[in-house]
């Protein structure tokens, strides 16, 4: 999603610069957005110190978690009142793995990011192969907005056990599994700090922003993961990049052509124009034959 130059929506093609950093030293001052994805090991105390300094100065963050690294991710996201629920989201279907999750853009998210509004208008979704549901507490000083949620079919839950992809999965309430209707899988947090607006995006899946997932085309799904990426970084960059090239919607949205005009246009296109073309063709052909 970052540096894949052949992909037009890659962030490197949208005006962003990148560098890899380690948290064994202070985060450079020129870093505007820090990306932390799928923590495989806990954050060390010295790393947490420098990360906390970045957070306290109002730095923006994109945090992408995975159910398999839930404990490590919760160590980080709990700073903002956000945690990932146990297990992974499951919905049995005939075509896809049971833990293949679809995220639907919310109305609040669409009002915050115009890219999500486009997704809602076109019935686009975000695909998340293996996601965890998020929960949040609004008493941590952040304004929280749900960007994407699961569907409300009633046949979706948090699977806490091992998934056997060869067998039909079933919900087991005795092990803490329960229905998930419109469970958030991506959140946006913001607060005023140090005379600026701090912005943080947290997802329950890291694959949804990967090159691999973006490049997959599924014939029966209208997915636009890149819209989510563009919207998140546009918002976190204070609407600076990617450059907003939208234009006002055209005002010519009515048809004033009457029934007679429609008939004339129809016969002009299917009769008169073809007849003129035939006459021109025959004229050229006859003149060439006569020489």
Order of helices and strands: EHEHEEEHHEEEEEEHHH
Q: What structural class results from the helix and strand content? A: alpha+beta
Please give the count of helices: 7
Report the sheet-strand fraction: 15-25%
pLDDT averaged residue by residue:
92
Spatial sequence of strands, sheet with the most strands: 1-2-11-10-8-5-6
Radius of gyration based on Cα positions = 26 Å
* Helical coverage, percent range: 25-40%
N-C termini distance: 64 Å
Strand count: 11
**Any idea what the shape is?**
elongated
Describe the fold and architecture.
The chain has 291 residues and is an alpha+beta fold. It is built from seven helices and eleven strands. It has helices at residues 45-56, 70-77, 107-112, 114-122, 211-214, 225-236, 259-289, and strands at residues 33-37, 60-64, 82-84, 88-90, 100-105, 126-129, 134-136, 143-149, 157-159, 184-193, 196-203. The strands form three sheets. It has a seven-stranded mixed sheet. It has a two-stranded antiparallel sheet with strand order 3-7. Helix 4 (114-122) packs antiparallel against helix 6 (225-236). The longest helix is centred in the C-terminal third of the chain and has 31 residues, at 259-289. The protein starts with 32 loop residues before the first strand and ends with a helix. 30% of the residues are buried. The model has no long low-confidence stretch (mean pLDDT 92).
């Amino acid at each position: 999603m970052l540096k894949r130059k052949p992909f037009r929506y890659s962030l490197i093609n949208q005006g962003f610069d990148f560098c890899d950093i380690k948290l064994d030293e202070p985060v450079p001052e020129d870093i505007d957005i820090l990306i932390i994805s799928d923590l495989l090991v806990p954050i060390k105390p010295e790393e947490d110190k420098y990360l906390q300094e970045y957070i306290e100065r109002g730095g923006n963050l994109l945090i992408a978690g995975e159910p398999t690294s839930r404990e490590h991710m919760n160590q980080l996201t709990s700073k903002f009142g956000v945690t990932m629920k146990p297990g992974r989201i499951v919905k049995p279907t005939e075509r896809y793995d049971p833990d293949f999750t679809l995220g639907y853009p919310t109305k609040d998210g669409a009002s915050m990011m115009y890219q999500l509004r486009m997704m809602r208008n076109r019935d686009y979704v975000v695909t998340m192969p293996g996601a965890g549901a998020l929960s949040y507490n609004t008493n941590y000083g952040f304004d929280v907005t749900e960007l994407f949620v699961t569907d409300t079919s009633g046949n979706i839950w948090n699977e806490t056990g091992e998934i056997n992809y060869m067998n039909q999965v079933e919900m087991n309430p005795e092990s803490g599994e329960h229905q998930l209707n419109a469970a958030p899988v991506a959140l946006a947090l913001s607060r005023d700090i140090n005379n600026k607006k701090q912005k943080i995006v947290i997802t329950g899946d890291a694959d949804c922003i990967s090159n691999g997932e973006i490049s997959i085309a599924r014939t029966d799904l209208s997915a636009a993961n890149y819209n989510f990426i563009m919207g998140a970084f546009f918002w976190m960059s204070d609407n600076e990049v990617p450059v907003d090239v939208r234009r006002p919607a055209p005002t010519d949205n009515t048809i004033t052509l009457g029934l007679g005009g429609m008939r004339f246009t129809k016969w002009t296109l299917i009769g008169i124009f073809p007849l003129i073309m035939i006459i021109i063709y025959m004229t050229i052909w006859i003149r060439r034959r006569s020489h």
